[in-house]
Amino acid sequence: MKALIQRVKNAKVTVNDEVISSIEQGACILIGICSSDTIKDMEYIARKILSIRIFDDENHKRWQKSIVDKQFEILCVSQFTLYNTWKGNKPDFHKAMAADRSKEFYEQFIQMLKDKYKPDKVKDGLFGAYMQVSIQNDGPVTLEIESPAQIQNKTSNSTDAVERKDEVSNR
């Protein structure tokens, strides 16, 4: 699971010229769900989103306060394209969880954030819709978090590729 976190002054999601959700200061977070994600990945990302220190404190010291500390808002947007690969010049999304499974997974994730924080402070877009996301980035600050299981999978895949290359060159 992956979260692309953008610190914002405000953000909104529009579908067919209708505002679906909007927030004031906080974070607009694009959420990518991988086909192999589990509840542990979800728990990790939710915990990190609520605890990372991306805001200044009252003395303007940077990177001291979390969304929870500041009581700011969160706007999550499902974004399957975060799990893309490239086939030449064309994106491929086979690593993303299929829509029929990811909708329930995403909704469970949003509920987890609401349960761990404040339900009225957590908003989201419209799953599967063609959305326009407008933000006023604050900084700008954009940070990526990926669950350890997915990082491990990337490392294993890279190691496997190196080992296969070694096997071929040893022939």
Q: Helix tally? A: 4
Biggest β-sheet: count, sense, barrel?
6 strands, mixed
Which regions contain 5 or more consecutive residues with pLDDT less than 50?
159-171
How far apart, in Å, are the first and last alpha carbons? Answer: 38 Å
Oligomer: single chain
- Give helix and strand order, one letter per element, not per position: EEEHHEEEHEEH
Helix content: 25-40%
Approximately how much beta-strand content do the residues carry? 25-35%
* Rg, nearest Å: 18 Å
Question: How are the SSEs placed, and which strands pair?
Answer:
Layout: E1 2-15, E2 18-23, E3 26-32, H1 39-51, H2 67-70, E4 73-78, E5 85-87, E6 90-92, H3 99-116, E7 122-124, E8 132-146, H4 148-169
Parallel strand pairs: 3-4, 4-7
Antiparallel strand pairs: 1-2, 1-3, 1-8, 5-6
Helix pairs in contact: 1-3
What would you say about this model in short?
The protein has helices spanning 39-51, 67-70, 99-116, 148-169, and strands at residues 2-15, 18-23, 26-32, 73-78, 85-87, 90-92, 122-124, 132-146. The protein is α/β, with parallel strands linked by helices and 171 residues long.
What would you note in describing this structure?
There is one protein chain. The chain is of the alpha/beta class. It is built from four helices and eight strands, in the order βββααβββαββα. α1 (39-51) packs across α3. The longest helix has 22 residues, at 148-169. The chain is globular, with a radius of gyration of 18 Å. Residues 159-171 have low confidence and may be disordered.
